[in-house]
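About this split. The held-out portion is used to measure sequence recovery: a designer receives only the structure tokens and must propose an amino acid at every position. Recovery is the fraction of positions where the proposal matches the reference. Here is one held-out target exactly as it appears in the evaluation file.
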């Protein structure tokens, strides 16, 4: 199967500000910067999640939800510095061949059970289980062992130093007490997840929307936004109409919308537009079993013939960068 796609490294997000769903948009006379609890954020997506189990999820729509429901041991702050999430602290020993994680105490799963080191080791075991359909096994293949020292301490061992080791433990942790005796790939959990994150799963209305509510007992404090609704709207033009009507608060823009309908003075008064690196790419994938593409020189010739700059300027209107392989600028493997 030939996939005809092109390298893209930028996405654009819209966030609504100063709007009223009851009477159309209005710009208030005064803005109040003091945070308060309540309100609903309605997000939108062109795709429906494939699963809400973060070990199995490999699409952006699934990750949009799992990132709100689950936590990893570490995370990145606004300056892309690694900080603790479920981990209180850590030490790197033996010239990078061992990481000792000390976990935060008192963290609860959404069903009230306590989070412990058993959950972390179980998550690692599922990533490495050949029967589990995960796209992320390679992240943990350099790990030689995970040893639980006590409920809140564990050691991760590597055969040799592995530069991105720490950042890969930002992967979401899943609950042992729910999943250890279930068929992992088909468990009901995959459509009704229980995590430790800032938002609690409420319901999934297939092909319509997913609803979350704020976690009252979140270990970093209850989120200010009370409810999060993720609407599934496959057509971006329809998304934009819903945004303009006040039915959604946020959407991703394609290049055409960004430079046309979303680039008027009236629109810019009502919305904030953000252009951020997407850290993703798209590509041409050749089926090597097809005789047409079995010859390496044919694949190379087709790749050399592709005018990336023309696609970037003509199709993406400049909102992309060319790349030459699967490692994007900013990733650990890129040079």
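Reference sequence for scoring:
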């Amino acid at each position: 199967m030939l996939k005809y796609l092109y390298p893209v490294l930028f996405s654009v997000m819209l966030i609504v500000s100063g709007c009223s769903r009851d009477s159309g948009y209005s710009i208030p006379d005064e803005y109040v910067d003091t945070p308060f609890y309540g309100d609903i954020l309605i997000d939108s997506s062109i795709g429906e999640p494939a699963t809400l189990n973060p070990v199995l999820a490999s699409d952006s729509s699934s990750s949009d939800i799992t990132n709100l429901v689950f936590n990893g041991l570490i995370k990145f702050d606004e300056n892309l510095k690694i900080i603790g999430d479920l981990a209180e602290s850590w030490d790197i020993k033996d010239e990078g061949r061992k990481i000792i994680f000390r976990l935060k105490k008192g963290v609860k799963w959404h069903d009230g059970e306590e989070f412990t080191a058993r959950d972390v080791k179980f998550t690692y075991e599922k990533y490495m289980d050949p029967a589990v359909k995960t796209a992320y096994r390679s992240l943990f293949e350099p790990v030689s062992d995970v040893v639980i020292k006590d409920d809140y301490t564990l050691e991760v061992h590597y055969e040799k130093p592995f530069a991105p080791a720490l950042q890969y433990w930002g992967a979401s942790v899943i609950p042992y007490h729910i999943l250890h005796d279930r068929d992992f790939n088909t468990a009901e959990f995959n459509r009704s997840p229980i995590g430790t994150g800032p938002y609690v799963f409420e319901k999934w209305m297939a092909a319509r929307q997913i609803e979350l509510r704020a976690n009252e007992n979140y270990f970093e404090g209850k989120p200010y936004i009370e409810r999060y609704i993720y609407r599934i709207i496959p057509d971006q033009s329809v998304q934009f109409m819903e945004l303009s009507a006040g039915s959604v608060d946020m959407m991703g823009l394609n290049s055409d919308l960004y430079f046309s309908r979303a680039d008027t003075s009236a629109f810019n008064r009502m919305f904030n537009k953000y252009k951020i690196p997407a850290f993703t790419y798209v590509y041409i994938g050749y089926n090597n079993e097809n005789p047409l593409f079995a010859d390496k020189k044919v694949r190379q010739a087709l790749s050399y013939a592709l005018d990336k700059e023309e696609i970037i300027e003509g199709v993406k209107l400049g909102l992309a960068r060319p790349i030459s392989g699967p490692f994007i600028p900013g990733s650990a493997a890129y040079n």
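Annotator remark: Residues 1-28+253-335 form one domain.
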